[in-house]
Amino acid sequence: MRVEFNVNDKVRVVLTAAGAEHYYRHFSDVPGRHLPQLYAGSEWEGPVWELMQIWGAVMFNGQLPSRMPFQENTIELQGGK
pTM of whole model > 0.85? Predict the structure, then answer.
């Protein structure tokens, strides 16, 4: 199966507690940035490139289930070919 998408296509994820925690850690060194209130069960939408930038470091084969950033390890693609 071949799936094509553009890194600017929108994706949607439902965060776990670990995913929300990593989101805040990712932006912790950005002074004055207003962050939305995210928690386990929160939905996040944005372009593929931003998801990769924020959560890429914690998305890898063999990740502990308790540390997976997205519920059911699922990323919903909202655009594409």
Answer: yes
